[in-house]
Amino acid sequence: MVPVAIGTQVGGSIIRPASFCGVIGFKPTFGALNRGGMSDNFSQNCLGTLSLTLADAWAVCHEIALRVGGDPGFPPFAGGPIPAGPRRPDTLAVLETAGWPVADVGAKAAFEAYLGVLSAAGVALVNRRSSRRVERLEQAIAEATEVSRRINDWEKLWPLAELDHRAGAGLSPGLRKDIAAGRAMTPDEYHSLLRRRDTMREMLQSLAGDIDACITLASPGPAPLGIDSTGDAVFNHPGSALRTPALSLPLLRVGNLPVGVQLIGYPQRDRDLSGIAAFLLGLGGATESRGAG
């Protein structure tokens, strides 16, 4: 309907729908695009795009940064007006995340086939079994869903607790449950959660010297049937908790439905990630014809 749209992501609300819809989802480094007027206080919420092309995503992010900058205290988006040209990465870290055990059979098969495409193109791949640093990162981000959820519970108290106090019956049971969980937390517990999140980012930074980016699935499989669920964000919580740039690329098909490949980069290196993304898009994708498991 449109070449590019703006979205927000606290957990997975850019990368996951992009995966389901066969478009490019881009979540920049946290704080790169000003969130003024959004009325939220989530320390993981990030403005981003869903688009047909990398060029559309980069143009919109660049223009937003020119007009309103980034969040106060954060560098604005510095990826430039156009993405970088295709660049073959020397090495990518393949992440399983907590999502691998729940991913469907077809998505796993298509992703593994795509890793074969990358290897054939000369990209070195490391994982938790071949790299201690990747294993340490995997162990840290295994907690990303829990840590993110509890941080969000605390941060929902302002201003949502006031809405709950004044008109609680109008809020969903799930939201009221989250608010109650936030009220039960202490400042010290919140501080501990922030430290756990910082540790995840430190583990990621330990890879930066010789690993170009991380790669994983963007969703456990194709979009779920019906309207009862928007799908599982388990593959997206690590990128949100890390607060680093992430991209969902429409490179896989399972049962003739799209599934995205997710790239996770390093803070403030959005432009580097765009060059890797352009290379991957140029290689094409992989298909698992058996459908979802």
Descriptive notes:
- It is a single chain.
- The chain has 293 residues and is of the alpha/beta class.
- It has one domain: Amidase signature (AS) domain (Amidase signature (AS) enzymes, Alpha-Beta Complex), CATH 3.90.1300.
- 41% of the residues lie in helices and 16% in strands.
- The protein is built from ten helices and nine strands.
- Strands 1, 2, 3, 4, 5, 6, 7, 8 and 9 form a nine-stranded mixed beta sheet that branches.
- It is globular.
- The model has no long low-confidence stretch (mean pLDDT 95).
What descriptive keywords fit this protein?
single chain; Amidase signature (AS) enzymes; 10 helices; 9 strands; 16% strand
Number of helices: 10
Helix content: 40-55%
Uncertain segments are none
The CATH homologous superfamily corresponds to Amidase signature (AS) domain
Structural class: alpha/beta
Mean pLDDT: 95
Order of helices and strands: EHEEHEHEHHHHHEHEEHE
What Rg, in angstroms, do the CA atoms define? 19 Å
* Total beta-strand segments: 9
Looking at the structure, the CATH topology is Amidase signature (AS) enzymes
